[in-house]
Amino acid sequence: MRALTWQGRHDVRVETVPDPEIVNPRDCIIKVTSTAICGSDLHLYDGYIPGMRSGDILGHEFMGEVVEVGAKSTLEKGQRVIVPFTISCGSCFFCEREQYSACDNSNPAETSDASETLYGYPMGGVFGYSHLTGGYAGGQAEYVRVPYSDVGPLPVPDHLEDDQVLFLTDVLPTGWMAAENAGIEPGDTVAVWGCGPVGLFAVQSAFVMGAHRVIAIDHYPHRLELAKKFGAEILDYREVDVREALAEMTGGIGPDACIDAVGMESHGLAIDNLADTLKAHTYLGTDRAHVFRQVLLACRKGGRVSVPGVYGGLADKIPIGALMEKGLTLKSGQTHMQRYTKPLLEMIEQGKIDSTFLISHHASLEQGPEMYKHWHDDQNSYTKIVLKTDAAAVPAAEKRDRISEPA
Ligand SMILES: NC(=O)c1ccc[n+]([C@@H]2O[C@H](COP(=O)([O-])OP(=O)(O)OC[C@H]3O[C@@H](n4cnc5c(N)ncnc54)[C@H](O)[C@@H]3O)[C@@H](O)[C@H]2O)c1
Ligand SMILES: [Zn+2]
Ligand SMILES: [Zn+2]
Questions:
Q1: Which end of the chain is flanked by fewer CB atoms within 10 Å, N or C?
Q2: Do residues 365 and 385 touch, judged by C-beta distance below 8 A?
Q3: Is residue 404 included in any domain, yes or no?
């Protein structure tokens, strides 16, 4: 089959690799129809996540048709499903508490040792996301093996297009959990850093949860425009001092809740960001925690901080005094996907959530390597890329208008 493989920093290739096979009775095999590139994939592309090996198959946002089932899978051949990016057994201590991304069974011991050293306990498994999270082959491929297929995949109704349900695999539940973790109450003012797919879904979710005002922060005009469409007020962090602007906009009090939907690859020329960048490039550090620092300082006293943005290792100069002295509540984590897929599918069906507004480009799997480059180099115009394994399924108008045909 054809698949996108990671070969090293800024080196993604489309290659022919062996087809996946059923390994365990609870597995199934999915024939992928649509798959998306995520902001998290950028951390792999930029070489910031340890534990990647040359040839690893990328991709954790994918959906398709069930084509093979193990003896204990509850799915049937021919079903159309979305597959959550987290791999969860459904019955361990953590899955029983619906903390699915912390599953204790899905990350094989051989690979979880490294995450245990880094984080104190091993992480759960994730598709296409390094050998720290199980070394599972990802779904930016024609076929993918899905472990614990009786727990994760969710069948979707035929009347909904792939584009309408694809983001149930990650960024929609992630934006939703980010807003939930921010403890939003009706009337709240919420600030969201980052207008990528996660930040944009956090903006939309915050309004659905009753936020009175949402202030979205980024520096890409087109991404800020998308946030504005949902009613957010916007701040370009290159034009204003973000903390001062937020204080001013909230009568000197500060936002009730602050969401860091940027994570470890903050942009910008702030002194602390430059220092973090230097450390990352000289192997003295990993994460650029500028946004997290800013969030802790900008949030109002007694406010709530939610961090869906991925951080991977260590960061210093964190204003821990602000966290404690202001009495902030802090919540974070990889999304507990299986909690949210069904209710959010219902909200899409009822028209309460717009799940397609952020798609800027469709392309074929074969165009994957160039799409990774665009996703990295031109975040302003590329707000979300959907890859189709069947090139004929790429909308024709876009092929003509937006994407150069392969030579
Ligand atoms: N918790 C989870 O389960 C989960 C799931 C998916 C993605 N993520 C993470 O969420 C984060 C966002 O994902 P995405 O797909 O939206 O990524 P993205 O790269 O498309 O978006 C990040 C946005 O942050 C903006 N940004 C950079 N520096 C900023 C700054 N200083 N202030 C304000 N904005 C700034 C960028 O301009 C960009 O628009 C990533 O770290 C990703 O890894 C987490
Ligand atoms: Zn993702
Ligand atoms: Zn489990």
A1: C
A2: no
A3: no
pLDDT in tens, the chain (407 residues): 999 999 999 999 999 999 999 999 999 999 999 999 999 999 999 998 888 999 999 999 999 999 999 999 999 999 999 999 999 999 999 999 999 999 999 998 777 777 888 889 999 999 999 998 999 999 999 999 999 999 999 999 999 999 999 999 999 999 999 999 999 999 999 999 999 999 999 999 999 999 999 999 999 999 999 999 999 999 999 999 999 999 999 999 999 999 999 999 899 889 999 999 999 888 788 899 999 999 999 999 999 999 999 998 889 999 999 999 999 999 999 999 999 999 999 999 999 999 999 999 999 999 999 999 999 999 999 999 999 999 999 987 665 444 443 33
Contacts of 251 (CB under 8 A, 6+ apart): none
Which ligand 1 atom is at minimum distance from the Cα of 375? 20
Which residue lies with its CA nearest to atom 13 of ligand 1?
39
Beta strand extents in 40-160 (DSSP E only): 56-57, 61-69, 80-83, 86-87, 125-126, 143-146, 154-155
Overall number of domains in the chain:
2
User: Residues with Cβ within 5 Å of ion ligand 2?
Assistant: 38, 40, 170
Q: What CATH number should be reported for the domain holding residue 254? A: 3.40.50.720
Q: Mark whether 214 and 290 lie in a shared domain.
A: yes
Q: Does 406 reside within a domain? A: no
Q: Quick check: is 157 in a domain?
A: yes
Are 290 and 342 part of one and the same domain? no
Instruction: Round to whole Å and give the CA distance between 167 and 333.
Output: 18
| Nearest CA, atom 9, ligand 1 | 309
Q: How far is the CA of 259 from the centre of ligand 3 (A)?
A: 27
For residue 364, give the H/E element and its range: strand 361-364
| Nearest ligand 1 atom to alpha carbon 220 | 37
In ligand 1, the atom with minimum distance to the C-alpha of 290 is: 31
Relative to beta strand 61-69, strand 80-83 is antiparallel
Backbone angles phi, psi at 57, to 5 degrees: -85, 125
Q: Name all residues whose Cβ lies below 6 A of ligand 1.
A: 38-40, 42-43, 170-171, 174, 193-199, 217-220, 223, 237, 261-263, 266-268, 290-291, 308-310, 334-335, 379
Q: Tell me: do 156 and 241 sit in the same domain.
A: no
